[in-house]
């Protein structure tokens, strides 16, 4: 807590000085944080440089007594020293995420809380975030988008296109989806195509397997879009729905902005922002006061005194009717339905503006190449592209696309993903059975029912973290003081990428700290995850993690000494899934509302500890509670959940979350689960009698839940709360499969809002590597691109094979090498290579090969402790791999996780060489030529790039 020379007894580190958490929690006043944040917001939004400098000086004056608490008063947008505390994590679910954000966020006040999203499928989530942004009249912005992932309803679709997805081997996943897919495939109810360079298990059963060139996924979607528009096989009625009222009247759950008019920037030859009524002088802005607050409306000017003005809550958007007349509307208007009469408007003159519709802009982007040219880019025959487009549009809304990592984990991942989502928009299949579906979970926060325990009002002394994050997410480079202080000729490229449209950029975290850009870190905490192992180019983290000047303190919570936690100063033991609580939520392929609840079924193997006078399992939660106790954080311990409500034990949080879940989302128990009977409660308690009181204490649980205890038992005995099956697909079962007939089988869980075809926000965002504005529409961007916007040409140096990864069903990415039952099925992995490529290199199955790349020409892992490992494995020659592409399965080739001897307190724990078996080639994955300590990345969606590296394969 207090810092100091914590490692004075460690040879070579006697002088290492660590700043304590108490000092790093520099600002403890919530109101001061809010006031500073407000002032910094004004600094960021000011575009005039001199005025911006003036606001910085004003900040220094207004907060002169607290400037010592800032990271750098010259850069107030960096925020307070609290931000020098870093917390990052791998896979984490509800419950644990709640306590972590409470401790590091509202407790310690750091904005640097970053997850692992971009190592999985970041660009998929953040393209979904852009497309799910809603128009906010109060701020006049598109905002509030979720990390939306619209998966295909493979349980009901007549036709599916799987792109870069392997549901028989992963992808949320085999246990859930395989039975539904195989049963329907066997009966002939389902037909599907697979786009993947590798003949995956599902590709082997496809109507068509299309082995594309990696990185060309967006080009495939654009080719299909071109054909569908040219052949008018889109849902014109859906695309014409301009606002909420129109979608409701048409019986559609969602609507999109395909028909909205977009202004053209004729000087740049690019589309810009949407056309607005005020720009045409069709409405006037009015300001009134209501209940002490300013109310802004936009009103038409009546032609006569008898005519009432039309009032809009926002500056209205515009479409054209069939006769070419202007029609204004509010996207969120639930009363006045607006249906466009024209979907394709090309360079029409409206007032002083030249306009197109969003759909016209999409059409032009798809038509930038011919089908034959798209065929050349993708490596897929033109006739197969056309056949795929025809089949996709032959099932009404009962067709979908199912995309995953193979689409998103490229340098062009963001635009790949929005291209596929726009393909789905053309048939209007969102929220329809067999179309694109959206996850829905039951609320555990109490917000919807306003109780029985409202967590938003149970955070005493909560701090509101502010300032620029270490990974520069949700922030524009051009608004920063860093940009302001640089000469114009040095603005681009920035030192590192900025992510105004993404967050949780895993590959940025430690490299950014290593570069101290925008600032350095004093204390780092990690939970689960092994980025050194799992990230492309993760070996670049090792040098930084070992440098105590760059990372003065690193604390890990882990169940094992892993490839990342092995570099930590302290490892606090955690528990496995059988020993812990988690609220798992749902996954987007599930059309039912669910909330799974995991709770301990065995005693903690780590033993117990005492915190706040309470015995509890030695685990992640105990570590945070113990630190909170020492720091005397107001939102933990006595009254930590509000006056008279203690937070002394993990159960104090978790049982209340279950109580909210059992209560439901309506007041007065209208949505509550039934009460468990006395017999069921007795069985529930007896079935847990083997657990120690530190984990399960009926008296503690009943005291926390009170009268809700019988309902809490109902939820926990069933492993969570699950919507009734019949509510998953309400409707009468009619499936005409036509855009021209009412399609009345919506999904039970709905997204139910605007989906953006055209991304207006992007027109105001620049790529911090090139200074160029981002495209607001799906477009093809070359893969394998560096931060400077240039395509890498490593093939000129002999790196002539594209390397990708995949997953074997018997292994996950990291933790199952110690599961010997699974390992016996496949002791080691192989590098898959097409027979043509193998023959050219005189290779046969079983040969040992070395993999190298332009950024790792030696083909080695350097672990920084005197131990190196060659990137060497065995080849497996196959036909089911596109020539020019090789692949290896993740999860093998560990150098920690018990694979080698380690010494703890003088005792040596022997490693097991079986865990060392196999090849792990992430260190060969290309690092960026400009940002050299980081893998290639998608500068928009943030994805860590797994599928663009060119490598050389030689006999070892």
Q: What average pLDDT do the residues reach?
A: 95
Gap from first CA to last CA: 50 Å
**Annotation, overall tally of beta strands:** 41
Gyration radius, to the nearest Å?
28 Å
The spatial strand order of the largest sheet comes to: 32-38-33-37-34-41
Helicity, as a percent range = 10-25%
Report the sheet-strand fraction. 15-25%
- The shape is globular
Would you identify the regions where 5 or more consecutive residues have pLDDT less than 50?
Answer: none
Main beta sheet: 6 strands, mixed, barrel
SS-based class: alpha/beta
Number of helices: 26
Overview of the structural elements:
The chain has 956 residues and is α/β, with parallel strands linked by helices. Helices cover 24% and strands 17% of the residues. The protein is built from 26 helices and 41 strands. The protein has a six-stranded mixed barrel. Strands 4-3-23-24-25 form a five-stranded parallel sheet. α6 crosses α15 and α8 packs across α13. It is globular and about 85 Å long.
How are the secondary structure elements laid out?
Elements: E1 3-4, E2 18-19, H1 21-24, H2 30-45, H3 49-62, E3 85-89, H4 96-107, E4 113-114, H5 117-120, H6 122-131, E5 134-136, E6 141-143, E7 151-152, E8 159-163, H7 174-187, E9 191-195, E10 208-210, H8 217-230, H9 236-239, H10 244-250, E11 255-256, E12 261-265, E13 270-274, E14 283-290, E15 293-300, E16 311-312, E17 317-320, E18 326-329, E19 348-350, E20 353-357, H11 358-366, H12 371-378, H13 382-392, E21 399-403, H14 405-408, H15 413-426, E22 436-437, H16 481-485, H17 509-515, E23 523-527, H18 531-534, H19 540-546, E24 554-558, E25 570-573, E26 582-585, E27 594-598, E28 608-611, E29 614-617, H20 620-631, H21 650-663, H22 678-686, H23 698-705, H24 709-717, E30 720-722, E31 754-755, E32 801-806, H25 820-823, E33 831-834, H26 835-840, E34 848-853, E35 860-862, E36 868-870, E37 872-878, E38 885-889, E39 902-904, E40 907-909, E41 950-955
Parallel strand pairs: 3-4, 3-23, 8-9, 8-21, 9-10, 11-31, 23-24, 24-25, 32-38, 33-37
Antiparallel strand pairs: 1-2, 5-6, 7-22, 12-13, 12-20, 14-15, 15-16, 17-18, 19-20, 26-27, 27-30, 28-29, 32-41, 33-38, 34-37, 34-41, 35-36, 39-40
């Amino acid at each position: 807590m207090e810092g100091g020379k914590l490692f004075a007894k460690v040879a070579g580190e006697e002088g290492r000085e660590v700043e304590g958490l108490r000092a790093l929690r520099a600002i403890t006043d919530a109101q001061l944080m809010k006031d500073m944040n407000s002032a910094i917001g004004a600094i960021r939004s000011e575009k005039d440089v001199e005025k911006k400098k003036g606001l910085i000086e004003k900040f220094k004056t207004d907060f002169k007594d607290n400037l010592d608490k800032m990271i750098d008063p010259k850069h107030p947008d960096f925020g307070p020293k609290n931000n020098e505390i870093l917390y990052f994590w791998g896979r984490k679910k509800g419950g644990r995420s709640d306590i972590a954000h409470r401790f590091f966020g509202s407790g310690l006040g750091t904005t640097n809380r970053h997850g692992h999203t971009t190592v999985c499928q970041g660009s998929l989530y953040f393209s979904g975030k852009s497309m799910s942004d809603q128009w906010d009249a109060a701020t006049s912005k598109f905002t509030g988008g979720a990390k939306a992932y619209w998966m295909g309803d493979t349980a009901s679709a007549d036709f599916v296109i799987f792109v870069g997805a392997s549901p028989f081997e992963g992808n949320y996943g085999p246990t859930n989806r395989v039975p539904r897919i195989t049963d329907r495939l066997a009966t002939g109810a389902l037909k599907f195509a697979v786009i993947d360079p590798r003949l995956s298990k599902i590709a082997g059963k496809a109507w068509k397997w299309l082995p594309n060139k990696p990185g060309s996924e967006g080009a495939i979607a654009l080719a299909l879009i071109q054909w569908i528009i040219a052949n008018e096989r889109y849902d014109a009625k859906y695309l014409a729905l301009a606002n909420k009222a129109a979608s409701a009247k048409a019986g559609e759950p969602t609507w999109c902005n395909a028909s909205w008019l977009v202004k053209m920037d004729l000087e740049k030859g690019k589309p810009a922002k949407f056309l607005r009524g005020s720009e045409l002088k069709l409405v006037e802005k009015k300001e009134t006061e209501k209940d002490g607050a300013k109310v802004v409306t936009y009103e038409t000017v009546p032609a006569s005194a008898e005519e009432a003005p039309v009032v809009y809550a926002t500056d209205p958007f515009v479409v054209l009717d069939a006769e070419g007349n202007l029609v204004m509307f509010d996207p969120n208007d639930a009363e006045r339905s607006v249906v466009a009469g024209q979907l394709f408007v090309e360079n029409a003159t409206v007032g002083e503006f030249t306009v197109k519709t969003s759909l016209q802009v999409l059409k032009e982007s798809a038509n930038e190449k011919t089908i034959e040219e798209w065929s050349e880019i993708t490596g897929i025959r033109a006739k197969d592209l056309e056949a795929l487009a025809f089949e996709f549009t032959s099932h009404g809304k009962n067709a979908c696309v199912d995309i995953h990592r193979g689409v998103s984990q490229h340098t062009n991942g963001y635009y790949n993903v929005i291209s596929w989502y726009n393909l789905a928009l053309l048939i209007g299949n969102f929220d329809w059975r067999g179309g694109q579906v959206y996850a829905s979970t039951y609320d555990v926060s109490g917000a919807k029912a306003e109780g029985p325990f409202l967590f938003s009002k149970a955070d005493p002394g909560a701090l509101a973290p502010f300032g620029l994050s270490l990974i520069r997410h949700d922030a524009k480079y051009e608004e920063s003081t860093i940009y302001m202080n640089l000469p114009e000729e040095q603005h681009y490229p920035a030192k590192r990428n900025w992510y105004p449209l993404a967050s949780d950029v895993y590959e940025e975290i430690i490299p950014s700290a290593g570069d101290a850009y925008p600032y350095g870190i004093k204390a780092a905490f990690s939970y689960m995850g092994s980025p050194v192992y799992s990230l492309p180019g993760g070996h670049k983290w090792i040098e930084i993690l070992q440098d105590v000047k760059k990372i003065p303190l690193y604390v890990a919570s882990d169940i094992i000494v892993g490839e990342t936690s092995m570099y930590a100063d302290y490892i606090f033991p955690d528990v496995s899934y059988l020993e812990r609580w988690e609220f798992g939520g749902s996954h987007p392929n599930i059309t039912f509302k669910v909330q799974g609840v995991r709770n301990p079924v065995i005693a903690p193997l780590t033993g117990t500890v005492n915190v706040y006078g309470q015995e509890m399992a030695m685990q992640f939660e105990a570590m945070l509670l113990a630190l909170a106790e020492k720091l005397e954080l107001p939102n933990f311990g006595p009254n930590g959940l509000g006056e008279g409500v203690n937070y002394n034990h993990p159960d104090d949080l978790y049982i209340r979350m279950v109580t909210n879940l059992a209560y439901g989302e309506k007041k007065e128990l209208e949505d509550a689960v039934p009460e468990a009977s006395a017999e069921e409660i007795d069985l529930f308690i007896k079935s847990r009698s083997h657990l120690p009181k530190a984990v399960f204490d009926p008296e503690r649980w009943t005291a926390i839940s009170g009268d809700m205890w019988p309902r809490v038992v109902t939820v926990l005995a069933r492993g969570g709360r699950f919507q009734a099956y019949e509510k998953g697909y309400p409707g009468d079962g009619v499936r005409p499969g036509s855009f021209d007939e009412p399609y009345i089988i919506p999904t039970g869980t709905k997204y139910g809002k605007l989906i953006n075809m055209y991304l207006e926000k992007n027109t105001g965002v620049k790529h911090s590597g090139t200074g160029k504005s981002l495209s607001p529409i799906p477009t093809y961007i070359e893969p394998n691109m560096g931060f400077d916007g240039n395509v890498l040409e490593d093939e000129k140096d002999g790196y002539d094979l594209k390397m990708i990864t995949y997953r074997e069903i018997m292994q996950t990415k990291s933790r199952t090498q110690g599961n010997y039952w699974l390992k016996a099925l496949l002791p080691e992995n192989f590098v898959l290579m097409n027979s043509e490529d193998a023959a050219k290199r005189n290779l046969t199955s079983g040969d040992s090969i070395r993999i190298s790349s332009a950024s790792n020409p030696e083909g080695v892992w350097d672990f920084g402790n005197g131990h190196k490992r060659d990137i060497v494995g065995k080849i497996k020659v196959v036909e089911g791999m596109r020539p020019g592409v090789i692949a290896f399965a993740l999860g093998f080739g560990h150098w920690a996780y018990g694979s080698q001897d380690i010494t703890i307190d003088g005792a040596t724990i022997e490693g097991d060489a079986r865990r060392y078996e196999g090849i792990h080639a992430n260190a060969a994955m290309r690092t960026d030529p400009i940002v050299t300590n980081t893998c290639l990345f998608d500068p928009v969606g943030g994805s860590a790039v797994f599928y663009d590296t060119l490598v050389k394969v030689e006999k070892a």
